[in-house]
Amino acid sequence: MTVKAIQWLLLGHLLVQVSMVCARVPAIIVFGDSTVDAGNNNQISTVLKSNFEPYGHNFYGGLATGRFSNGRLATDFLSEGFMIKPTIPAYLDPAYSISDFATGVCFASAGTGYDNATSDVLSVIPLWKELEYYKEYQKKLRRYLGNDKANEVLGEALYLISIGTNDFLENYFVFSRRRSQFSIEEYQNFLLGIAGNFIRELYQLGARKMVISGLPPMGCVPLERTTNIISGGVCNEKYNDVARSFNKKLQGLVEKLKKELVKFQLVLSDPYDIVSKIIRNPAFFGFENVAKACCGTGMFEMSYLCNKINPFTCSDPNKYVFWDAFHPTEKTNAIVADHVFKTDLVQFL
């Protein structure tokens, strides 16, 4: 089966799942980090950008939008699956207006985390600022659609949150400040407190349908394999254990909030298992390389180190699980999106 045929098959699976969804989802509203940033970092002063080749190699027109991938993100596939639109635009992108954002908008910023100290590392947009942009968006949407219609959209929209990996890989395990303040379990609880408050604020602002993502096997991204060279370049299982325990705690928070907040549909989307399956058996999913990324040597390059003059970048990203040393390829994003539909969105029937 050709790569294109596989991609169309995945999309077909998404559409089948959508046909089962009775509740109307008029828009998808996204918060988080580089897993879902559609290009907001293009508009801020940070070194963490991806609005240049070869990023976007497989995006429409080969355009590098600021997405940290060779193509679309999982959220883009979810939007298309809901038959809304094929991509979700970044809120700070001047090429788009409220007419575009009315059916889906992304507030995410690559490099950010629940912890404000994480966003400070690379001077990106903190989570609290994403919320402020959302409040601004609400005002624009009400002016554009009128109060009643805007409130209907905001109440029926699906809110997606994907964040947390940077808090550990970019902050806690790299710098001593948080480690001197918190044990790993205490830091997890600290982050969960922030997550709970963020969800409550969105609920108070009208959100009623929400999916929050857990952490992937973060010890298996190529960058962590590279730094784990003493152990032979295998996955860092210490980091994976942290991801699994955090996800378990996050599930507890979800259950607590579902009891606390009335008429609120909140679901945990746990990518750990599906990504682990891909990593353990890449051939089953049509991949040939899981340990190294496509861009550059595949061992450490991301952002400006992943550029068009790097002579080592692969010719076929669809053979790779990871695009750069930290982020998945478009094909991986499509598989994860398909999994989310099948396992999580049935909660919205």
Automatic annotation (TrEMBL):
PANTHER family: GDSL ESTERASE/LIPASE EXL3, OS06G0636700 PROTEIN. Keywords: Signal. Residues 1-23 form the signal peptide. InterPro entries: GDSL, GDSL_lipolytic_enzyme, SGNH_hydro_sf, SGNH_plant_lipase-like. It comes from Malus domestica. This is GDSL esterase/lipase. Belongs to the 'GDSL' lipolytic enzyme family. One of its GO terms (molecular function) is hydrolase activity, acting on ester bonds. Pfam families: Lipase_GDSL. It comes from the Eukaryota.
